[in-house]
Write a structure and sequence with these properties.
nine-stranded mixed β-sheet, 2,3-Dihydroxybiphenyl 1,2-Dioxygenase, domain 1, 5 helices, 299 residues, alpha/beta
């Protein structure tokens, strides 16, 4: 498969109270308002790009879609042709919608393993003004993790059909994957669960102090902390997980292993144990990654 990714482009979330969620993601998480679309999607950013996160009013909270930025228009057409060869239905994003989202040459498809809507595009516009950090120096949207009831088959599909590479595995529990040739240890995680759902969304910060400050900011604002702080053995990231107003799980993390395009190390297989997800001995709260309906695109 020759198609090449540039990065995880953005994540769109369904929320049940737009005003409440906007306040959380701006005032608590530290994202910046980036406008809205005619369809009612509210855009937020944590970088110089047009947007990194989208909020959409809905009756059920969870994942609306995931945007993947490819290296060029050629790569977009290559992956679209490949998906259609698998008998998957692709839909072009209308020109006016692309303009509102600041993207080019986009199409959407229903990923068959999790039911998630994936949007592929070739480029995203930069914002008119620089990103101004407020409560945290966010570096980027880091990754998204999806739960699946068939981890083996889901991983196989992403490896063999979507050109994702495995960085590490926790046996029977999690597969950490990078969209080739993006170097980050994982831009996508697959987690074993009893059904497909959104597991969590991650934002990477530039300073370890951002993790410490967030811990006390969350406590002051009575935001539930559901895991951490700790350090993940697979990526060596320092992490802190907490809940948004709909109890969707959000993560701050600092630091991450990066892979070379050529001759990367082999994936490691870690045992299914708490010690494989945290060096420091933290234990996840039962609400950790428990909420997040995946909205599926109509066939």
């Amino acid at each position: 498969m020759p198609f090449r990714y540039r990065r995880l482009g953005y994540v769109a979330l369904n929320v049940t109270d737009m005003s409440r969620s906007q306040a959380f993601y701006q005032e608590i998480l530290g994202l910046q308002d980036a406008g809205s679309t005619a369809g009612g999607e509210h855009l937020l950013r944590c970088s110089e790009r047009h947007h990194d996160l989208i909020l959409h009013q809905s009756a059920a909270a969870g994942l609306r879609r995931i945007g993947w930025e490819m290296e060029s228009n050629v790569e977009v057409e290559l992956i679209r042709a490949h998906l259609e060869s698998l008998a998957l239905i692709t839909r072009a994003v209308p020109t006016e919608d692309c303009r509102a989202l600041g993207i080019e040459g986009a199409f959407r498809v229903r990923e068959p393993q999790t039911g998630a809507t994936f949007e592929y595009y070739s480029a995203m516009a930069t914002a008119d003004t620089p990103f101004q950090p407020t409560v945290a120096k966010i570096a980027r949207l880091g990754h998204v993790v999806l739960a699946t009831d068939d981890l083996t088959e889901c991983e196989r599909f992403f490896r063999e059909q979507l050109n994702f590479r495995v960085s590490d595995r926790i046996q029977g529990a999690v597969t950490f994957m990078r969209c080739f040739p993006n170097p980050l240890h994982h831009s996508l995680g697959l987690s074993h669960g009893n059904a497909a759902r959104l597991h969590h969304v991650n934002f990477m910060v530039t300073d370890i102090d951002d993790i410490g400050r967030a811990l006390y900011r969350l406590k002051r604002n009575n935001i539930p902390i559901v895991f951490g702080p700790g350090r993940h053995p697979p990526s060596e990231s320092i992490f802190l997980y907490f809940l948004d107003p709909d109890e969707l799980t959000v993560e701050y993390s600092f630091g991450m292993e990066e892979f070379p395009e050529a001759a990367p190390r082999e994936p490691r297989l870690l045992p299914m144990a708490l010690s494989s997800i945290d060096h420091w001995g933290a234990v996840p709260d039962p609400k950790f990654a428990a909420t997040g309906v995946i909205e599926t695109m109509e066939a």
